[in-house]
Sequence to fold (345 residues):
Amino acid sequence: MINTRFNDTFLKACQKEKTDHVPVWYMRQAGRSQPEYRKIKEKYSLFEITHQPELCAYVTELPVKNYHVDAAILYKDIMTPLPALGVQVEIKAGIGPVIDHPIRSLADVEKLGVIHPEEDIPYVLDTIKLLTNEMLTVPLIGFSGAPFTLASYMIEGGPTRNFHKTKAFMHGEQKAWFALMDKLGEMTVTYVKAQIRAGAKAVQIFDSWVGTVSRQDYCYFIKPTMEKIFTALRKENVPLIMFGVGASHLALEWASLPLDVVGLDWRLPIQEARNLGITKALQGNLEPSLLLAPWDVLEAKTKEILDAGMEQPGYIFNLGHGVFPEVHPDTLVKLTALIHEYSRK
Fold:
C-alpha cells in the first residue's frame, strides 16, 4: 500500500526541485538531548541499542514524531562497520571510540577483512527495513563515515585534536595509506549500497575531521577515493550528501564530486558558498551553540540563513554540526515550526 502521507520535501530539495517549504533535519537529532533516549541509555550502550532493530528504529523515529522534521537519520555510529573488518572498537563514556590495536604498517592494513553486510550487520539492515516499511512518513537517511575520518581513528587509536599520527602516516607511509584508503573506500561502497537496498532513501557521508587536512593534501591523498565512492553510489539513484566540520576550504572540491548536496558548517555562509560558484544543493548551517541563545537571537539568525538558502532552488536547513545534550527538545520543536512557517511565506 502506498503511504499517501509520505513527506518527500527533503528528497525534492536534494534534487533542487520546487518545494512548498524548506525541509529540515538535524544532525544527531536521534538521541543526545531527548529524555526518552536518555532513559534508554541508562540501560543500554550505543552498540547494544543498534543491535536491537525494534529499539533502534524507535530511537531513529523519535525525533520525527517529537520535532516534526522532514527526514530521519539512522541511529548508529560511524564505527559500526569496523568490527566486520577485524577492527575491535569500544565506545568509552566521556572519551569516544577507542581501538586497542592501531594501524602502524602496510602489514596491518593487509590484515583488514571485508564487510559482508547481510552477515556482519544484519541488525542495521533489519532496522532500516522496519523503519521504511512500517514506521516512517519521511525519508530515511543512511550514512557512513568517510575513509579519512575512519582511518584517523584506526591510526590514532581514538579521538584526537591534532591528528599527528594520521598525517605522519599519510605522508610517510604512502603505500600503506593508499592501501588503507582503497580498503575503506570499498567498505564504504558496499556498506552504503546495502543500506540503500534495505530502504534508505538518501545517504550522507560524514568526513567529520577532514577539515584538518589542507586542500592540497586532500586532493592528493583523499579525493581520488571519494571520487570512486560517489561514482559507485551514483548508480543507486538516491541523493548523496557530503559533510565535514571546519572544511570550508574543501567546499569546492566536494562540489566537483558526483554528489547532490554539499553540507556546510557555520564557518562558510551560504551566500559565500554560492559566490564561490557552488551550484549544487546546499545543506546547513546554523551554529549549534545558538540553540542555547535567547529565542529572539536564534530566530533572527535562522531567518537570515533561510533568506540566503531560499535565494536558489535546492536548500535544506540543518545545523553546522550536531545536536548536543544541553539542547532542550522544545527548542528544536519551536525551531522546526519556525523554519516551516517562515519558508512557506
